TrEMBL record:
Matching SUPFAM superfamilies: Concanavalin A-like lectins/glucanases
Transcription regulation is among the record's keywords: no
Residue stretches making up the GH16 domain: 72-279
Keyword Hydrolase among UniProt keywords: yes
Gene that produces this protein: UTR2_3
Protein name: Glycosidase CRH2
One GO process term, biological-process aspect: carbohydrate metabolic process
Keywords attached to this entry: Glycosidase, Hydrolase, Signal
One Gene Ontology term of the molecular function aspect: hydrolase activity, hydrolyzing O-glycosyl compounds
Stretches with biased composition (Low complexity): 297-312
InterPro entries: Beta-glucanase-like, Beta-glucanase/XTH, ConA-like_dom_sf
Leader sequence residues: 1-20
Amino acid sequence: MKITSVLAAATLAMASTTFGQSTCNEWAPCYREGYCNTDAAFCLWGLCDESKSYNSTSCWKPEGCVSKVVNFDSSSDIVPIGSYAGNPDTNAFLSIFEPDNTQVSNSNLELRMTYDASANKGFGATAKSSHTIQYGRVTARVKTASLAKGVVTSFIIINEQTGDEIDFEWVGLNPDQVQTNYYYKGVLDYTKMLPANVGSDSSAAYHDYTIDWSEDKIVWLVDNKPIRTLNRADTYDASTGVYAYPTTEGRIALSIWDGGNSGQQGTQEWSGYPTPWSADTVYKAYFDTVTVECAGGSTPSSSDDSGSEEPSQTGKDEESSGSDGGSHEPTGAPENPKCIPRPLV
Ligand SMILES: *[C@@H]1O[C@H](CO)[C@@H](O)[C@H](O)[C@H]1NC(C)=O
C-alpha cells in the first residue's frame, strides 16, 4: 500500500523506541537500517530485518533457486531496486544503490564507478540476484575493471544476515590475478584469501569464473579449470566444535567499488592506492552472462534471460563483516527511497 507523507508524519510521531521488538507498523512494515517502508529496498529478503519489522510475515520470503542463464540481452534483466515490483522472473538482477550505476549495453551488464567529489572516492554499483541460492553452481562471464590501482570488481554469493559469503574478487593492483575467499558467519579472517593467476589481464578479455558450492566442498574454477577446493571437513574448528563453512542461502552479487580511496589501510594496500580519479573518470566492469545451476536441479534450460537469477555482492575488507563482504563498497543503505521512510527514534 502507498504511504502518504501525512501518514508518514503521523507514524513518525508514533515511532517506538523499544529495541529488539517490532519497530515498524503495518503501514510501513519492513525494517532496514533504521527505517521502515513498504518496497523492495526495505522488504527484500536479506535486506529486511525480520526482528524489527512489523510482524513475522512482513519481510518478503527468500525466492529460492531457479536454474537459468542470464544473458543480459534485455534491459529488464536488471532493475533499480526501488522500481522492483517483486517478481524475480521478470528481473533477474536488482541494482542496489542510488544513483543507479548499472545498465545493459551490447548484451552485457555494465557496472560503472564514477567519482564522488564530496567523498573523494568512487561511487560504484552492486547488482544482486532476485533469486536466492543454497548450494549449486554459478558461473559469471566477466571482464573486470582492473584498469587502475584501487578498483575492485567482485562476484560473490552472500547472506547478509548470517555473514556467510563465497567470493571471487579482482583488484586493480594485480590485473592478472583473481582472488578467492569465503567467510563464515561474518568472521573476518583474511588468511583464507588465496590469489590465482588468470593467465592474462582480467580486464582485457572475458573469462568464466565459477563457484561450485555443495554441502561438502566449494570449488572455484576459472575457464572451467579448478583453481581452489575448500573441503568442509577441513574447516572444522575444534575450539568451537563447528565447521566454519558457508551453508546459508544467499544471493549472487556483482559489484564494482573503490578500495583504493576507501580510507581503510588494509583495503587500500590490498587493492592498490590511491585510485586515480578525475572528474570524468569512469571505471567499468562487464558481465556477459551469469549461469545458475541449482543444487539438485536441472541444468539451465535455455539462454533466455527473462527468468531469474541470483546475485549478490561484496568486497572484503578488514572491518567489514562477512555479511557485506566487504565493506568498501558503497553502503547498501537506501539513499532515495521512493516512499517517505519512517526513521526510528
Ligand atoms: C502480519 O501483518 C499482516 C498485515 O497487517 C496481517 O495480515 C497478518 O495477519 C500478520 N501476521 C501475523 C503472523 O501476525
